[in-house]
Amino acid sequence: MGTTVTLDHKIDSARDLIRGVLYENSGAACVTCSFQTECMALLDLLIEQRPAIPVLFLETGYHFPETYAYRDQMAEQMHLNLVNLESKMSVHEQESRFGILNQTAPDRCCGIRKVEPLFRGLGDYDIWFAALRREQSATRANLQPVDRFKLPTGHQLLKVSPLADWTNADVWAYLKRRRIPVLPLYDQGYTSIGCAPCTTPPIDPDNPRSGRWSGHKVECGIHVQTE
Ligand code: SF4
User: Fold this and answer.
1) What is the pLDDT of residues 144-190, one digit of tens each?
2) Domain ranges in the chain?
3) DSSP H/E element including 83
4) pTM of this structure
């Protein structure tokens, strides 16, 4: 009973925040989505109010086949306005020039395949919805539901995280209630899913993101504010 009430309250709060941001700000809005569980909960809440909101997916070229298949399945099922953001450099060109950067220099690889394409893509928008949650990692513990984010160009966006206070259990309960299928990799023990070469099931069972980059780093850099 208590959990249900809490989740209902969080859903109402997230809806109110989304509605308030969309109707109090006239700028162009988008949402980033990696098709993980929290992304699907946020998408579901967003498209009920803004069905054609651009859904930005970082097409690094290194995702699991299951992720691509699920992306396409859900884009069709939810009628998403999917926007694939790609690096200017193909995977083949990057590997020919620099080798396998995800093994030798993952920060540089993320910079080329995630950070630069995302920041370039975000330049078209004023409001950025993201499915970040405080519980996900220590680096996200102080996450604010509404914040400012400055791109290297100086362009500023309103960055909105309606699920900031949601727990992992809240996300799964929401998806179950809404009958939204999840990426099949969760059934194989993955708890945080990014590019295939940099993702394993969690090393630390208490830290869902500990399977990312073998625990050597915790963020790809797309949520790191430009100084
Ligand atoms: Fe490269 Fe791995 Fe970063 Fe993906 S997560 S962009 S493969 S280093």
Assistant:
1) 999 999 999 999 999 999 999 999 999 999 999 999 999 999 999 99
2) 2-186
3) strand 81-86
4) 0.92
